[in-house]
Design goal:
mainly alpha; 18 helices; 0% strand
Length: 388
């Protein structure tokens, strides 16, 4: 019993420590707290120190943390915070990305599905999430579809590797290419360009500027998240067992988004950071359940699958942006927001030397978080229906 309690405390405390260390260390910060948590989890799960009865604890934590994280992440969203001109370009950028990843996913899955095993259809849905919202969607879709820990880690590890290469290209040569191919960015007037600094700060990954006054409101937000989790979990009992996780995740997503329209909830500070912390707990727990031998066996195929998927999606997305007359900077910031999530938007905007696309990027990322869960789950079941 004592051993179980200590491991629960470890799973909850270590991600918080990782967050603190990453906030102080530039190298670890560049890797990302979630990557560090995956590595730690893989190590402790494969060196023989976990007790035999830990599986129940791991499964319980995994069942809890993602449904709690999603509403907290959504609470910070401000879908009314942008002007009509920005919203129109945002809609073009996002719709192009969504169509591109769906077409690319279908083509790539058609090629690779014989080599992906019984859970290949689940992988296809998770990768829709990767291109439409990054880790939050990947984790939510994987949880909803009850993906095995080894395959989940294989998909996420491969995505991190491919994504790291893509990010380096986004910070170097890709902007030059797209600025030659797509329309130039049309600068907004001072009235049209109202950069909401508080909205940008809301998606900072670390707990910066946390005060005692923030504690009770944040505790209240956590309580609301628990209630939303309970509603989603309760509703899942009303459907067949095979659909229970899917129904729970989709209801939790919907209620979390609706709650963001309530100003008192949306204005609570640090809800995104708390949700991000729960994602780190999930990363550490699920990686500690994965067998490295199984991971090595499937990783090369999945790496190739994801690489080709991204090449197809990138190409189709670029062609669609050309057809829809999306400018180069908006196109690039949309890709950044969708694949890497809103915290990376200011980084790429700085490379582009264009602060005016920051808010558009933030909105694209937020919409991606919402739509990605529905699109990914729906696409996965479509692939299961078509390919068996």
């Amino acid at each position: 019993m004592l051993s179980t309690i200590l491991w629960i405390l470890f799973y909850l405390a270590c991600p918080a420590l990782v967050l603190w260390v990453c906030s102080k260390n530039k190298f670890l910060d560049s890797l990302g707290a979630i990557v560090v948590c995956y590595v730690i989890g893989l190590i402790i799960g494969n060196i023989g120190i976990l007790p035999e009865n830990i599986t129940g604890v791991q499964e319980t934590l995994n069942m809890l943390v993602i449904p709690l994280a999603l509403p907290l992440i959504f609470f910070s969203m401000n879908l009314r915070g942008w002007g009509k001109k920005q919203a129109g370009m945002t809609a073009k950028a996002f719709s192009g990305a969504l169509v591109a990843i769906i077409i690319a996913s279908f083509i790539t899955f058609t090629i690779f599905h014989p080599h992906l095993g019984d859970e290949g259809w689940k992988m296809s849905g998770m990768l829709i999430g990767c291109y439409s919202g990054g880790t939050p969607n990947l984790a939510a879709i994987g949880t909803a579809l009850e993906m095995s820990s080894s395959n989940f880690i294989a998909v996420n590890t491969a995505d991190v590797f491919v994504g790291a290469i893509l990010l380096m290209l986004l910070l170097s040569v890709i902007p030059r290419i797209f600025r030659k191919v797509l329309l130039p960015f049309k600068k907004l007037t001072d009235e049209e360009h109202k950069v909401n600094i508080s909205q940008m700060d809301a998606f900072e990954l670390y707990f910066k500027g946390f005060t005692k006054k923030d504690f009770l409101p944040l505790l209240g937000a956590f309580g609301i998240s628990v209630v939303i989790f309970a509603i989603g979990g309760g509703a899942s009992f009303l459907v067949p067992e095979g659909l229970s996780s899917v129904v729970a995740i989709l209801i939790i997503t919907t209620l979390g988004v609706l709650a963001s329209f309530i100003p008192k909830i949306r204005n609570i500070r640090m809800t995104f950071q708390l949700g991000h912390y729960f994602l780190l707990v999930f990363a550490m727990v699920i990686s500690s359940m994965a067998n490295i031998r199984d991971l090595v066996g499937v990783a090369p195929t999945i790496m190739l699958y994801i690489s080709i998927l991204y090449i197809f999606a990138f190409t189709i997305h670029g062609l669609l942006s050309k057809l829809m007359k999306v400018d180069s900077d908006t196109h690039l910031i949309a890709i950044t927001a969708l694949i890497y999530s809103p915290p990376f938007v200011p980084v790429v905007a700085a490379v582009l030397k264009n602060k005016q696309v920051i808010m558009t990027g933030m909105l694209v990322g937020i919409v991606g978080w919402v739509i990605g869960n529905y699109a990914g789950i729906g696409f996965a079941y479509l692939m299961q229906l078509i390919f068996g």
